[in-house]
Amino acid sequence: MKSYKLSALACLLAMLTMLFAGCGSKDKAADKAPLVKTQQVGAGKLADNSSYAGTVRGRYETNMSFQVGGQIISRNVQVGSSVRAGDVLMTIDGRDVVQKSNQGDAQVAQARAQLELAQRNLSRYSQLYQENAVAAATLDQYQANYDAAFAAYQNALAQAAQGHNAMGYTNLTAGANGVVSAIAAEEGQVVAAGQTVLTLVQTNELEIEINVPENKVAEMSVGTPVTVSFWALSDKADGVVREIAPMADSAARTYKVRVSVPEPPAGMQLGMTANVSFAPKLADAEAGSAGTALLPLSAIYQDGDTPQVWVVGPDHTVSLKAVSVESFGDNQVLVHGLEATDFVVTAGVHKLREGQAVRTEADS
C-alpha cells in the first residue's frame, strides 16, 4: 500500500513538471514578437511597369524586284550581307532583253522608212496641187498619211528607248547602304517583273519595334519620350515614339509601335533585343522629399475615412500614422505625411495592434 502511494505521488509530480514545462513553452512562444515585412520610406521608388520588349529594325525595309522578267543567273549576296549603294545583288539572263531591244531598233528603222516615203509623197503632191493638177482632197489624204507615219515613228522611238532601258534592268542594284534581311529567289529561278526576290534593310536609320496590348495603346501618342535599353549592350538611349499602327494585328491583337532612336549607342545592330520603358504614371518622387512616399497598396490600413500606415518605432513597436493619398498606380500608392527614415509595415497590416512589439527582416 505504501509503495502504491509512492508510485502515485511520483506520477503526480511528473505530470505537474510536464504541465509547468508546457506552460513555460507557451509563454515563451507567446512572448516571441511576430515577424513583419517593412519598407523604408526613403527606399520607395515607382516601379516602371510600362516596359515592352522589342527588336531593332530598320526604318526603311525595301522589297526589291527586277523591272523585267527572266532567269536569275547569279546571286551575289547572302542573308546578312552588308551592301553599299550601287552594288549588284542579282543578275538575270539578258539575252531576251537584248533581242527585244534589237527588235525595237528594227521597228524604228521601218517607221523611219515609212515616214520618209510619206514625206516625199506629200512634197510631190503639194507641188501638183500648186499647179492645179490634183484636187485638194488628194493633197489632204497624203498629208494624213504623213502625219500617221510621223506618229508611228515617234512610237517606235519610244519603244526602242524602253528596250534600251530594259537592258540596264538585268542587274538588281542596291539603292542605299544596308543589310540583306531575306532572300526569296535563287539562282536558276525564273522570276516575273515586280516579283520580290530579296529584302534590303537600310542601316542609316535604325529604330525599335514593339507590340503594345490594345488596353495600353491609348496611353501612348506620337512624340512620347521613352528610354531604350539593350540586352547585349550596357548603354541606354533616349527614344521617341515615331509611329503607332492604326490597326491591331489580327492574330495577336497588339499594335505595332515604332520608336526612333536619334542617338543610337555604339554597337546597336539590326535584330538586337531591346527594352522600351515609358515614363511612369505617378511622379517618381525622391525619397522623403516634401513628405512624399511611394508604398505598395498592401501597406494602407484604413479604419474609417482616414488612411493610415503602421510605422515601426525605434523600440520595435508599431503605431498608426495618418497619411494622405495623392494618387494610385499599379499596386502602388503615392502618399504624404511620412518621414524618409520611417519603416512602414507592408504586409499583414490588419493583424497588428497599437503598441505591439514586432520583429523585422533585419532582426531575423
User: By helix and strand content, what is the structural category?
Assistant: alpha+beta
Strand percentage: 25-35%
At the fourth level of CATH, the homologous superfamily of the largest domain is Efflux pump adaptor protein, beta barrel domain
Q: What name does CATH use for the topology of the largest domain?
A: Elongation Factor Tu (Ef-tu), domain 3
Helix proportion = 25-40%
CATH first level of the largest domain: Mainly Beta
Secondary structure tally: strands: 22
The number of distinct helices, counting runs of at least 4 residues, comes to: 3
- Unreliable stretches (pLDDT < 50, length at least 5) are 23-30, 282-289
Q: What characterizes the major β-sheet?
A: 6 strands, antiparallel, barrel
Return the domain count.
Answer: 3
Please give the order of strands in the largest beta sheet: 2-11-14-13-12-15
* Rg for CA atoms: 43 Å
The average pLDDT value, as a whole number, equals 84
Shape designation = elongated
Can you describe what's shown?
The chain has 364 residues and is an alpha+beta fold. The protein has three domains: 79 residues, conserved putative lor/sdh protein from methanococcus maripaludis s2 fold; 144 residues, Elongation Factor Tu (Ef-tu), domain 3, CATH 2.40.30.170; 74 residues, Orthogonal Bundle (Helix Hairpins). Helices cover 27% and strands 32% of the residues. The protein is built from three helices and 22 strands. The strands form five sheets. Strands 2-11-14-13-12-15 form a six-stranded antiparallel beta barrel. Strands 1, 17, 18, 19 and 22 form a five-stranded antiparallel β-sheet that branches. The protein has a four-stranded antiparallel β-sheet with strand order 3-10-8-5, with no helix packed on it. A hairpin with a 2-residue loop joins strand 20 and strand 21. Helix 2 runs antiparallel to helix 3. The protein is elongated, with a radius of gyration of 43 Å. The two termini are 56 Å apart. About 4% of the residues have low confidence.
